[in-house]
């Protein structure tokens, strides 16, 4: 799980890179779930929340600059 303090100190480029990797992981988890191979089902929820957390900080940084 990503901490808010860690995200606050990152640059928008770093946040975008985190977002890409989280979205890739979410895709892979959905694929595993569809095939019945997913062992840690709680990870899906955690990744979704991390994606939302990163997007929130990206939006805050964008509105602060604009």
Automatic annotation (TrEMBL):
An example of a Gene Ontology cellular component annotation for this protein is: ribosome
Against Pfam families, the record matches this protein to:
Ribosomal_L29
rRNA-binding found in the keyword field? no
Q: What InterPro entries has UniProt attached to this entry?
A: Ribosomal_protein_uL29, Ribosomal_uL29, Ribosomal_uL29_CS, Ribosomal_uL29_sf
Record-linked CDD domains: Ribosomal_L29_HIP
Q: Which UniProt keywords apply?
A: Ribonucleoprotein, Ribosomal protein
What PANTHER family does the annotation carry?
A: 60S RIBOSOMAL PROTEIN L35/50S RIBOSOMAL PROTEIN L29, LARGE RIBOSOMAL SUBUNIT PROTEIN UL29C
Family in the record: Belongs to the universal ribosomal protein uL29 family.
Output this protein's name: Large ribosomal subunit protein uL29
Lineage at the top is: Bacteria, Pseudomonadati, Pseudomonadota, Alphaproteobacteria, Rhodospirillales
């Amino acid at each position: 799980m990503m901490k808010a303090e860690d995200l606050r100190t990152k640059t928008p480029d770093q946040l975008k890179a985190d977002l890409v990797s989280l979205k890739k992981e979410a895709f892979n988890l959905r694929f595993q779930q569809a095939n019945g191979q997913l062992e840690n089902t709680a990870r899906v929820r955690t990744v979704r929340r991390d994606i939302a957390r990163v997007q929130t900080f990206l939006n805050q940084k964008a509105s602060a600059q604009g």
